[in-house]
Structure formats: C-alpha cells, structure tokens
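Hey,
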Amino acid sequence: MIPTVLSVAGSDPSGGAGIQADLKTFAALGVYGMAALTALTAQNTRGVRGVETVRPGFVADQIRAVREDVRVDAVKLGMMATAEIAEAVAGALEGIAAPVVLDPVMVAKGGAPLLADAAVAAVRARLLPRAAVVTPNLPEAARLLETAPAATRAGMAAQARGLLALGPRAVLLKGGHLEGAESPDLLLSVEGEVWLEGPRVPTGNTHGTGCTLSSALAAHLALGLGPEAAARASKRWLMGALRGADALGVGGGAGPVDHLWERRRPASGDAVS
C-alpha cells in the first residue's frame, strides 16, 4: 500500500507554498497526499493580499473525515492562522499514532503575518508537544521562545534546546537566516545534536521553501525513514529543488522552488553532511 500523508495548512493560489507545495512534494516523493484546509489566501510571488480563515469546526471535520476512511502514515501541519484553528486541529488529531511534522508558519515570504499573535501560545501549548519534529526557521523559533533570533550556531543550539523542552520529540532548526555561504540546519533530539551542512543556493526564488522542506520530511517519515535519515534526505532533495528554481520563470517576485526538479535533470549530487 502506498504511504499516505495528510497536510493541514493554508492554500496558496499561485501554487508555490502551502497546500499546493505540500501536495507537489508528496507526489514527487512517491507518497499519497491528502489535505485539510485551514485558510484561503489571495497571494502570488509578489506578496499576500488577503486571508480568509476556515471555520475551526470545519477544519476539524476535514481531518476527521480523512481519519475515518484513510490510513494516515504521517501528518504535516502548516499555517494555523488562529488560536481557535490550532485548538481544533489538536483536538481532531487526538489519539493519532502517525508522526506529526509541525512547520510553525508565522510570516509569508513577503512579510505578511500568517499567524495571529494570540495563536502563538496555542501552537506552543497544544501542537508543539504533539510533534515528532518541529521545523522552525530562526525568526519562528525566536517567536515561539519569546526571544531574539539566533545569530550564531551556538545561539541556534541554545534555542533548539529551548524548543525541545516544550515537548516535541525532535527539533529541526533551519539556519538559512544566518549570514555566510553555508546554510546549516540543526537536528536536535534526546538522542543528540546533528548538524546538517549544505551550501547556500544562490537564488531569490525561495517561495514555499519551508512548506516544501517540512512536507518532504513528513513524506520521508511516512516512507519509513528515521528522523535523522529523513532530515538528511529532505534537505538534499530541497537543495535540488532550489537549484532548479531559477529555470522555472514563474511570477515576477520570489518564485517557487522546482518540486519536479528530478524529472527535469539528473540529481546534482549535492552533499548534505
């Protein structure tokens, strides 16, 4: 039977982020993707123009409808938008055995807020303890911890430990906001600290990068990989998608990554150590 992954997130009509990026990632990696919508956005590669949230009870109804009929091997949580939606999602996932990957989406690539201030506490209290892996970038980690963003690897390690203390089984803290030619990520769990190294890909077309990485991680967990192997495979795959982004020519702003890069060219051989 094909592995299955349920994404609970918002919609991006331009196709580069959110549910659309998640489903493309699932298909590219060979798992069966499902989706429960939390919000509709009016956005493109230049920015977000508006957000309409889905009624929390209906978000929960979508999740329950899937769980009643289809086996769920992994769950990816993205844009929650409000505290009420976060609470509804937590309730609808009660008792699920599948690993949950939490991408604490807070701000769109162009700077538009995608998570209400009051919802941060709900994500922290209700969803973080449920996560097998949480995948914040540095600003998201800082907001969850109510502190300033880390600016060094030592700062990243300290904040990853702070996040781990909030209840997830592992933290994949993304270091793309650090300065320099490298883009290191840190995977931290009770089993130890693992740095995932990789060069910074020189592209401005990074729309949906966080959504895509967390979806790839959920897909690899559904395929049976452990957290470290899944994180390495996901980072390696995302690097290929970033390298293919400039050739797409989609939109006039920050364009999407290329979710089908493996179909368009051979694997690049980029190493993630």
